Amino acid sequence: MTTAESTDTRGRIVRAAAELLERGGREAVSTRAVSAAAGVQAPTLYRLFGDMDGLLDAVAGYGFEQYLRDKREQGETDDPVADLRRGWDHHIEFGLTRPAFYVLMYGNGRPAGASAAGREAAGILRRLIGRVAAAGRLTMSVERAAQFAHATGVGIVLTLIATPEAERDRSVADLARDAVLRTLVTDAAPSSPGEGLPPLAGRAVALRETLRETLRADDDGPLTAAERALLEQWLDRLADGR
């Protein structure tokens, strides 16, 4: 099989599995069902994807591509908090309009970062929160804030998906969003980094994000990689009060 033929077959298998997923959920995506729908033999699936987890990762990436494309095209404004709010709303909307893909990505007990799509989605969230930190408006470390926002958002979406549509109250997602923002973000941008936050935590957050933006891992800066890692660890502990 040529490279072009292999790519075409791979795409056909992923599309077939995605259709099965949307029609019948994860249980419908079996080796036999996918092979029949794509018109291939079972060994072809394993040759191209390694195992079922590999196929499911590809299907999740296929389903999330529109979400990720919209995220990439969303762009940035001069208000990082508004951008974070908009990102939350987009995440909720995708989960409720494409529940099968969302549950595949976040509801199967596997780390979302295990797939390329999951890593990109996590990276987008981290960048959104990083911009809030760079503006001096984050109340904790970027990593803790990203984990908090992610856990809350995913929990809300999975809960709403599991709730019968007739009983579903989508305003719960708005309430959760506002609660998250109240926890993560100061009321107004300070005139200097760290102003308006607890002095130590605020300055640690601002310095941590400045380091991330200005000292790239491959730069020849004044710190060794080990020194930088230790400094970042200290700043995170100061930012989070640990």
Task: Give your account of this protein's structure.
There is one protein chain. The chain has helices at residues 3-24, 31-38, 42-49, 52-74, 80-97, 99-106, 116-134, 142-162, 171-184, 199-214, 225-240. The radius of gyration is 21 Å and the shape is globular. The protein is 71% helix and 0% strand. The longest helix has 23 residues, at 52-74. It has 242 residues and is mostly helical. The chain has 3 domains: 1-50, Arc Repressor Mutant, subunit A; 57-190, Tetracycline Repressor, domain 2 (Orthogonal Bundle); 200-240.
In a nutshell, what does this entry contain?
This protein has 242 residues and is an all-alpha fold. 71% of the residues lie in helices and 0% in strands. It has eleven helices and no strands.
List keywords for this structure.
globular, 3 domains, Arc Repressor Mutant, subunit A, about 70% helix, about 240 residues, mainly alpha, single chain, Tetracycline Repressor, domain 2
Structural class of the secondary elements? mainly alpha
Task: Let me know the average pLDDT.
Answer: 84
Q: Report the β-strand fraction as a percent range.
A: under 5%
N- to C-terminal distance: 56 Å
Q: What level of helicity do the residues show?
A: over 70%
CATH architecture call of the largest domain: Orthogonal Bundle
Largest sheet: none
| Secondary-structure element string | HHHHHHHHHHH
